[in-house]
Design a protein that fits this description.
single chain; 9-stranded antiparallel β-sheet; 3 helices; 9 strands; 15% helix
Length: 183
């Protein structure tokens, strides 16, 4: 039945993949309360607010803002339940063991972002680095253990363009028993 109900939603202004911008007065009270509880007075400027409809037909909300320590993203249900919190950290705010393992794994790669992510009550740290030849993402447990490493190599060389002269097509073979032509 959920499939049939979802089929009726295309006339809605948002789809499962699109976020719609909102004003603060458009947030449901439970979402606003969770936002205030999680962020308090930490935001340096007005947050960016968005909502989208999920495949289940409910709304999901995203609150993004800048704090003194970096960017913060919250994802919430319409009841105000926090489903994901991502806090971008400065190197000073990152646990030292995570920095040490990151340096060992990345070597000289420049670090793009370090974030503390809380999802379903589990805290992880995500460190992303990128160079011209590869991208490396590390995920650490809250205790600093390496949980996952994803390394994507890029081919910095352009794809070669090969142009060959047209192939010579051999003349058709003479039928058996036909006299041979003299050159």
């Amino acid at each position: 039945m959920l499939v049939a109900a979802w089929a009726l939603l295309p006339s809605s202004p948002v789809s499962a993949a699109e976020w719609e911008k909102l004003a603060a007065d458009q947030l449901p009270p439970p979402v606003l309360a969770t936002m205030k509880r999680e962020l308090g007075n930490q935001l340096a400027k007005e947050p960016r607010l968005k909502k989208r409809i999920t495949r289940e037909g409910t709304f999901e909300y995203r609150v993004s803002g800048e704090t003194s320590t970096g960017e913060v993203d919250l994802e919430l249900t319409s009841t105000g339940a926090l489903t994901r919190k991502k806090e971008v950290l400065t190197p000073d705010a990152t646990p030292k063991d995570i920095l040490a393992v990151s340096k060992r794994e990345f070597g000289v790669l420049p670090v793009n972002e370090i974030a503390r992510v809380t999802k379903a009550g589990e805290v992880t740290y995500e460190v992303d680095a990128e160079a011209a030849d590869r991208r490396v993402d590390l995920v650490f447990t809250a205790e600093g253990g390496l949980k996952r490493k994803v390394e994507e190599w890029k081919d910095p060389r352009p794809s070669p363009t090969v142009t060959a002269p047209p192939a010579k097509v051999p003349a058709p073979a003479a039928p058996k028993g036909a006299p041979k032509k003299k050159p």
